[in-house]
Amino acid sequence: MLLPRLITESPKDWETRRKELVKTLLDEEYGALPFREKSLAFGKISEEPSRYMGGSASRTDHLVRAVFDGGEFSFPVRAVIPNGEGLHPFFIFLNFYPEIPNLYYPAEELSDLGFGVLSVYYKDVTCDRAFDSSPDQGAARFFYDGVPEDERCGKLTIWAWAASRALDLALTLPGLDPGRAAVIGHSRLGKTALLAAALDTRFFAAFSNDSGCSGAALHRGKGDKAESIEAITRTFPYWFKKNFASYAGREEELIFDQHWLLGAICPRFVCVGSAAGDLWADPDSELNCCRAASEAWESLGLEGFDAPESVPEAPFRLFGGGIGYYRRPGKHFFRRRDWLDAAAFMLEKSSRKN
Description:
Layout: H1 14-30, E1 39-48, E2 57-68, E3 71-82, E4 88-95, H2 107-112, E5 116-121, H3 140-144, H4 155-170, E6 176-186, H5 188-199, E7 205-209, H6 229-235, H7 259-263, E8 269-275, H8 283-299, E9 316-318, E10 323-328, H9 336-350
Parallel strand pairs: 4-5, 4-6, 6-7, 7-8, 8-10
Antiparallel strand pairs: 1-2, 2-3, 3-5, 9-10
Helix pairs in contact: 4-5
């Protein structure tokens, strides 16, 4: 399988090349925001500083308010930060649920491990369907109105924008370490987490769990049961820039592949999680994407992906380099075990930043 080169023959300026990778991904797959907000403001909605989790953590709900030429848009961010002295590593969590804790978020355990979490419920930002006139389109109204349909970004880009605005908020809060900020998500929000880190270099690390097609899985060389460009753009065309669907059945003609998305996070850290039974997301393609992306770190004299030639039986972790990978038994789900793997990678890399 021949993949498009991630680096040039003699990359003298990695940041220039990294920006080229990002531009291609936005032009051909995700779409770029047509503009940014004019200003941001933050407000506290509610707080439980002393009673939450028996006094072990503080819970505060905040509002992020973005001002555009055409009006204002606000969305809530729900923060849980461990009490006690010192600065805590933290996750911007792109969440499928508004409640805390929830099915995908073991809030107390993460707090006990010393992590802050700022949760963004993705539908508070924009709904998960095609653009229309409904009020729940949220931020999409500001980024789409007046923009030709062919030039509109996909909703993954808008959710990634929200992750960065949550990071803006986090950097104003006490108790959080600005040098250890990670973005994390599962499935479509795992795709979003990778994109957010590629776009925003303030993220120390990015974590995707079962992100699959258009996330951490290569488009080329997929398994027979894996999701394809044809399948994902038929069901979720609004996640992407419109022209991406034209590559359905033409994967070999792509001028990029998903290792460019992982590589665009270099020299920071990225960790990919797979479930062995999630054949739709294609764990082998996700692991091969990590292998292919390793070239970026290696070109800078850093350790990229430290993986054996033969794939071990799940569960296993491969945390040796700038790219981490873990695989567990089971199906498509964001388990407590996945969080614990992400937390372990985060703590290990925090002690030796690239």
